[in-house]
Write a structure and sequence with these properties.
Layout lengths: L1 H31 L2 E9 L7 E9 L4 E7 L5 E5 L2 E5 H36 L5 H23 L3 H23 L1 H55 L2 H21 L3 E10 L2 H13 L1 H4 L3 E5 L4 E13 L1 H12 L2 H10 L5
Parallel strand pairs: 6-7
Antiparallel strand pairs: 1-2, 1-8, 2-3, 3-4, 4-5, 6-8
């Protein structure tokens, strides 16, 4: 019995060790095996397809690879060995098919409702002809009564006209007596308007004073902020954080930068002066580019043609190392708090 238990424990231990070993090897492969990328660009105006771009990325002897090409096959494809696990055009097609299915189901649900409405309308019985004629005759009689009532004026209207004429006569008689009072009311209205103008002018002067004070306060606040951030930049913590972080970031960019660049370009802007400026910039970048890119100028035409090939690699371990050092840097954390004004 003990021998059986020991054998079972032995087998379990071997299985656990195998699992741990496979996990460890996978982690090491992910960290240290680089992802290789290639970029190929071709442009020729005389061809049917003037420009083509192809991007490829592979990992671990092309076991996992991804490719994107334009415009021959404008989709992203991801493979493991020879099996495609993702393709962007198929994903879009599946999404459109699902939408069509949902729309079809909704239309199918609406069809029986429409049929029921049509059946209900068909079941409604029409009115008999006698009732229809009676309704039409009633409407005609009501219309005739209304027209007759409009033509015949009532006695009340005549009385209202007489009362209006009497009111106008009384107003004319009282108007001559109140002529003197109008001059005094005009004088009072002018004085009140003048006083309102003076009040508005005084309020505007006060507003100008307040706005000037607000602007001065804002300028003082800006000057204090500039002095505060200037002290932070001139401090030793900023210098130490800049030295560490800048070195790590530049080393990461150097590791990501292309290992191989080759290109042949024909460049022309249509203006000899601007084409000469482009060549001057190329001359300034020659120590970095070297003999990898050849530029041929065209001083007569406006054209950009040629081929470009870029190849490089990226390692996950380098990116994680840079992120670890930058994230756990005490000086950088101190600077972030100072910039947020969380620390004195």
């Amino acid at each position: 019995m003990l021998s059986v238990l020991l054998m079972m424990l032995k087998v379990l231990g071997i299985i656990i060790l195998i699992l741990l070993g496979t996990i460890l090897t996978l982690v090491l492969l992910v960290l240290f095996v680089p992802v290789r990328y290639r970029i190929m660009v071709h442009r020729k105006t005389q061809e049917e397809v003037p420009m083509s771009v192809k991007l490829t990325a592979s990992w671990l002897l092309h076991i996992l690879n991804a490719a994107f090409s334009y415009p021959e096959a404008a989709f992203l494809r991801v493979r493991i060995f020879c099996f495609t696990i993702f393709r962007s055009d198929k994903a879009q097609g599946e999404a459109s098919a699902k939408r069509d299915e949902k729309q079809g189901k909704a239309s199918r649900k609406k069809e029986p409702q429409k049929k029921l409405q049509v059946e209900k309308m068909s079941r409604v019985k029409p009115l008999p002809k006698e009732l229809v004629h009676d309704k039409e005759s009633c409407r005609q009689a009501e219309a005739e009564n209304e027209t007759v009532g409009q033509k015949r004026p009532d006695g009340n209207e005549k009385q209202a006209a007489k009362s209006e004429t009497q009111k106008t006569d009384s107003q004319e008689e009282t108007g001559n007596g109140n002529g003197k009072n109008t001059h005094t009311s005009k004088k009072k209205g002018i004085i009140s308007k003048f006083l309102e103008f003076i009040r508005k002018l005084w309020a505007a002067i006060k507003n100008i004073k307040y706005t000037i004070l607000k602007i001065c306060d804002k300028i003082k606040h800006i000057v204090k902020n500039i002095q505060y951030y200037r002290k932070i930049i001139q401090s030793d913590t900023f210098k130490r954080a800049w030295a560490v972080c800048s070195g790590q970031v530049f080393s990461l960019l150097k590791s990501i930068s292309p290992r191989k660049i080759q290109g042949n370009l024909l460049i022309g802007t249509g203006d000899p002066a601007s084409t000469g400026q482009v060549l001057a910039i190329y001359g300034m970048l020659y120590p970095l580019l070297g003999n990898h890119i050849d530029i041929v100028p065209d001083f007569e035409r406006q054209i950009i043609e040629g081929d470009l090939y870029v190849k490089g690699r990226i390692t996950v371990f380098k990116a994680l190392k840079t992120a670890w050092i930058v994230y756990f840097n005490k000086d950088l954390r101190r600077l972030i708090k100072l910039f947020k004004r969380e620390a004195a």
